[in-house]
Amino acid sequence: MTLHEDVFTTVAAVETTKATTDQEIVVELIARGYDCLRAELLAAFVPLGLARAVIARLPSKPVLRLPDSVLVLDGDRRLTVKLESVPEFQTARHIGEETYASGVIPRDLFSLVVAFSVEFNLINQALHAGKELGRLTFAPPVLIRLADAPGFERWYQTISTRSN
Asked: Under DSSP, is residue 142 helix (H, G, I), strand (E, B) or coil?
């Protein structure tokens, strides 16, 4: 499968299961033939990438600045992963933009998947609390499950060399 297809499969997994947790998405992706690491990557980075299309359209002065990386917790280690190096994130971000232009993902389903983005949820909380987005500072999202997936260390070594 292509990354493009993987993003749509992840969206379909959310729809099929009516997922409320990342674990439900991962289990469905594994049932669809993905290995554990691939399922974890898709469950983590697809909602984050799709949500960036929504977040980019929020009115903010000054312009809202989001982190360009995520932190992965691996025991005592805090590993930085540059989002520009994560193909799943980049492809999902592109499809999020495409969704705004052409509705490639139906609006209700798009909203369901975007709701898994920690950034989107934090911004929603800030807006409901009356905060001005442009004055907020966002820390990188923290991924706590990813490092437990078999094959993570090899994936991390590959990804970390892409951002150098």
From this structure: strand
